[in-house]
Every structure is written in C-alpha cells, then in structure tokens.
Amino acid sequence: MKKEEKTEEEILLAAEELFLEQGFAQTTTAQIAQRAGCNSALVHYYYRTKENLFARIFGSKVELMLRNIFSFDRQDETFPERVIRLITAHLDFLRENPRLVPFVLKEILFSPERAIPYAQELAQARGIFLQHLEEDLQAERRAGRISDIRGEALLNLVITQNISFFILASFRRAATGHILEDADYEAHRTELITTVLARLRP
Amino acid sequence: MKKEEKTEEEILLAAEELFLEQGFAQTTTAQIAQRAGCNSALVHYYYRTKENLFARIFGSKVELMLRNIFSFDRQDETFPERVIRLITAHLDFLRENPRLVPFVLKEILFSPERAIPYAQELAQARGIFLQHLEEDLQAERRAGRISDIRGEALLNLVITQNISFFILASFRRAATGHILEDADYEAHRTELITTVLARLRP
DNA sequence: ATTATCTATAGATCTATAGATAATGC
DNA sequence: ATTATCTATAGATCTATAGATAATGC
User: Fold this and answer.
1) Cβ contacts (< 8 Å) between A171 and chain B: which residues?
2) Is the CB of residue B106 less than 8 Å from the CB of residue A23?
3) Are residues B43 and B60 in the same domain?
4) If both were cysteines, with which of A129, A139, B5, B110 could A70 make a disulfide (CB 3.0 to 4.6 Å apart)?
5) Residue A39 in 3-state DSSP?
C-alpha cells in the first residue's frame, strides 16, 4: 500500500515539529502519528521506540548548533571585524532557528545524560575552534591591539549573551505575547558588540 | 495519632528536596511520601494535588531568586565598588543554592505558563531596581566617569553570565563529573568583573 | 466529633506489541 | 514472500480518592 511512498519520512518530520514545539515528554506517539497521517503503530514499526525517534532529532539539532558555531571560518578581515561577524552570524543563525535553543536547553536540563554522547564531539570541535582563536588572540595581543583575555572567556561571552537573549525572549513571549522585532535584535547585537569590543580594548 | 506532630511539614520538606533534585515531572507522590515517612495518600490529604505542592515550592524559590537580586541595597561606596559587590553577592548567592538556577530554568522551560503569575511581581521589583540603577548610571555618566549604557543591559550582563556559569557547570558535572572549585568561581568572577568594568569605561 | 493515617483501587494516560489484513514486487 | 498498515489491547505508571481505622481533644 505504498501510495505515499514516504510515510517513514512523514513521521520523522511530524516528530521533529512536535518535539521542537512541545518537547519529548509532552509529545505522544499518537500525536506524531496523527500529524503524519497514519496510525501510532506505524511510528513504532519504523522507529521502534519514541526515545529512538527523539534521539535522531535531538542529535541532528545539537550537531546543527555545534557546526554553526565551531565551523566559523576565518576570512580576510581584521580581528575586530571577525569578532563582529562571529557575533552577527551566530545571532542570525539563532534567529532563523528560534525554537532550537529553548528546545535543546530544556531537553538537556531534563535529562543531562542525553547530552553525554555529544560531549566528546563538542569538546573536539570546540578545541579546534579555540585553538585558532587563541592564535589570533595572541597575535593581536603581541601587536598591542587587544587586552589579555582567554579565548574560552571570549567565546563564552558571545554564546551566552546570544543564547540568553532567545531564552528571555521565549519567556517574554509566554508572559506578554511579545514577539521579537528587528529593533530588538539590533539593540541586542549592538550592545553585545560594544561589550565585547570594550573587553578587548587594550 | 500525632506522634510526629509535623507530618505536614515533613512532606513539604521532602517535596522540596525531591523537586529540586529531580524536577516536577520525575518526582512521584509516592517518592515524596516515602521520604517523608508516610503514605502517599497523606500527601494528597494535606496538599490535595501534586501541582499544588509544587506551586508552593516553585513560588518560594522564584521569590528567593528575585529578592536576592532586586533587593540589593546601596551602601556607602563608589559606583565601581557597588558593581563589584553586586556581581560578587549574586555569584555567592547562586553558589549557596546550586540547584536553584537549573531547577527554576528547567521548570519554566517545561511549562512557561507556570511563570506567568510571577511575571508581574518580577516586573515591579525589577522596575524599582532599574530605576535606582539608572539614577546611579546617569550621575556617573554626567561626571564623565562611565560610558553610556542602559541599566537593563548592565543588569542583564551580570545575571546572564552568572547564571550561565552555573548551567554550564551542571552540564559539565553530568558529562565529566567535575565539581566546581574555588578557583573556578574566582576565575569566573574576575573575568566578569573585568568585562563589566571594561564596558563601563568611558 | 474531629483529625490523622492507612489500604486498596478506580481511572487516566501512554508506550509498545500481537495479530490480522492489505498492498507490492518478484 | 515481503512490506506496510490497521485494530485492539496488554501492561506499566501515576494521581487522586473512597472507605476503613486509629488517635486526639473536648
């Protein structure tokens, strides 16, 4: 009865939407089946367990986040330009995936052991990124163009401030219904750039 | 059969521990009863619903967090001294209540509507705090001692960086077993103070 | 009489599977 | 023959309550 030819993928797509919207615990296999236009038995037929289905989606989202941050390439530009581009690119990425950060954060807080398989991958990608960053920082530092700062602290400042911007926005949306506007993004971006450049000033 | 005279409170204490350790969803009324040394029927006898019991504890924790941050008093000190004291006091508070931040964050992410009743209270306390902060900032600014910054941005920088420090630590603990040491706190504190003072520099 | 406590269980919810049936590709 | 799909339900889990019983304070 292969009229759809892709029920398996419909289920995956439905699950992705629902997990991102509602999280693992609040999503039932019946909901997934309904959205995929099939019976809940089929969800188990293709993916055996709900946990299995979730792990795939969670994994792909974690990788998406990591890849975005840690595969930031070095272009032909000055160091401050690069920092500004990193901040902006990260912010734009989060903006295009507004459910991503609350989803991943929530699920990790809910069961931290879920994140353990990705810890290794994270550590490696992060290590490479930081190594490059440290090289850049040292060169700038030696030239007297920036203050003393560890790459880790700089990276943390950018990621944390960008992420918390979206977490706070998701709370505000729940409480007041306010949806982020261009001006909100721009105000945040400008403030973060100002802070980071101030921190880097010799 | 009043031999304990305080089963009601034992239940509350047991619930507080378990909710903070495991969260609302992973805690059963049977677990609470067991830790309180009674039967699960008693949990409902005294508090009717699990949600009820949770709401009390969650509310008290949210208030604890808010009170700590927003009732920060002005002492006789210079502005930079005050900023340093705010950062340090906030960090010390979070350190004394290490489960607090992951708990509140997780539960709000899990069901944002839970936080709505506190949004009003938050807005008010925050408003008063920010008003004072803005006054201080304007005075300093007029005297040419600091750069231009909104009080909101300054507050956000401190709270976000401190909170994320604990969230990251809770992930690291889950992944590698690492427990925060004095040196970790001090490194974070120093870095944050450096960043904030740099941002304030005229 | 009232309050505290216990046992037992109804009822809701959800995952996962067994077993039947229909479609598909050799 | 194999793969896809459906119906029906077993089994697990948990909250909340009914109903019985024991303790306590008048």
Assistant:
1) 108, 112, 115
2) no
3) no
4) A129
5) coil
| Residue A4 pLDDT class (50, 70, 90 cuts) | very low
CB contact under 8 A, B174 and A106: no
Residue A59, judged by CB atoms within 10 A of its CB (0-12, 13-18, 19+), counts as middle
In this structure, the answer to whether residues B145 and B174 fall within a common structural domain is yes
Q: Which amino acid is at B13?
A: L
DSSP strand E in chain B: where? none
Total-model pTM: 0.92
The spacing between the Cα labelled CA in B115 and the C1' in C3, in angstroms, equals 35
Name the phi and psi angles at A137, rounded to 5.
-60, -40
- Judged by a CB distance cut-off of 8 A, whether residue A109 touches chain B is yes
Cβ of A3 near strand C (distance < 7 A): yes
Q: Is A164 exposed, middle or buried (0-12, 13-18, 19+ CB in 10 A)?
A: buried
CATH value at residue B19: 1.10.10.60
Q: Per the structure, how many domains does chain B have?
A: 2
**Positions of strand C less than 7 angstroms from a protein CB:** 4-8, 13-19, 22-25
Q: Looking at the structure, do residues B44 and B60 belong to the same domain, yes or no?
A: no
Alpha-carbon distance of A150 to B117, in angstroms, equals 41
Identify the closest residue of chain A to B189 by CA–CA distance.
A153
- Residues B112-135 have pLDDT tens digits of 888 888 888 888 999 999 999 999
Residue B20 sits in which domain range? 3-48
Closest C-alpha among A58, A55, A48, A53 to residue A15 = A53
A75-89 pLDDT, tens per residue?
899 999 999 999 999
Q: Are residues B169 and B73 part of one domain? A: yes
CB proximity under 8 Å: A 71-90 to B: none
* Same domain? A87 vs A153: yes
Q: Which residue has the tokens 């550590």?
A: A123
How far apart CA A134 and CA A102 sit, in angstroms, is 30
Residue with tokens 């901040």: A87
pLDDT over 80 (residue B2): no
Task: Check CB contact of A183 with chain B, cutoff 8 Å.
Answer: no
For residues A195 and A96, membership in a common domain is answered with yes
